[in-house]
Amino acid sequence: MMVKEVAELAGISVRTLHHYDEIGLLCPSQTTEAGYRIYSDEDLTQLQQILFFRELDFPLKQIREIVSRPEFKRQEAMELHHKLLLEKRVRLERMIETLEKTMKHEKGEIRMTNQDKFAGFDFSSNPYEQEARERWGDQAVDDSNDRLNKMSPKEQGQLGEEMNAIYRKLAQLRYGSPASDEAQQAIGEWFQMLNRMGNYSLEAFKGLGQMYVDDKRFTRNIDQFGEGLAAFMRDAMAEYADSRRV
């Protein structure tokens, strides 16, 4: 199939396919003498796999790394996609239900408790664990999981409340300088919080801040506390790390 036909079939733009080719993510099996890209059935199967990853918010760079690994098995990937998409559907259905109730609450048709308002928002799971393992090694993540697993449900709930309190504090400061005393004090609390759960060096802390912006899943979750918070935290975390290096 020609590139325009593939774009129409998959519901993406021709420019997207050109970009995939340019970065080595999906290179068509053939190119005519005139320079036209020709996609095979195998190429289309690969494109479907890529779009499943994109639907789950994987960055293009990570998709390329995953599918190019010798040990990559398509069937296993599809089984994982199926599991994650089902989980995503459940989360979306819960959030849609919460949104619909909130709309009725705003109209005075029903009354919601504070607990009702946040049904469907679940930040207790960590979908980025594998990325953390790849960046900083298994030990830091294993230490973090071990510490969390040893906490009681009450302790885990208190930890979540403390984390949200820091998010809200930083959200109030996000229009100021990330290097201000107030911002650095608050981001220092975040650094200490993370190290209660794991072992984060200053370099890892700075790298995590960059991921808050590079990975749109992080950005969406953090910016729920205030638009632009993820970028502000990245800058504040970089300042905190750089100013404390020996």
UniProtKB/TrEMBL annotation:
Does the UniProt entry include the keyword DNA-binding? yes
Where do the HTH merR-type domain residues begin and end?
Answer: 1-69
Under CDD domains, the record lists: HTH_TipAL-Mta
InterPro entries in UniProt: DNA-bd_dom_put_sf, MerR-type_HTH_dom, MerR_fam, TipA-like_antibiotic-bd, TipAS_dom
Keywords noted in UniProt: Activator, Coiled coil, DNA-binding, Transcription, Transcription regulation
Coiled-coil segments on the chain, per record: 82-116
Q: Which domain of life is it from?
A: Bacteria
Keyword Oxidoreductase assigned to the entry: answer is no
One Pfam family it belongs to: TipAS
Q: Matching PROSITE patterns, A to Z?
A: HTH_MERR_2 (PS50937)
The protein's name? MerR family transcriptional regulator
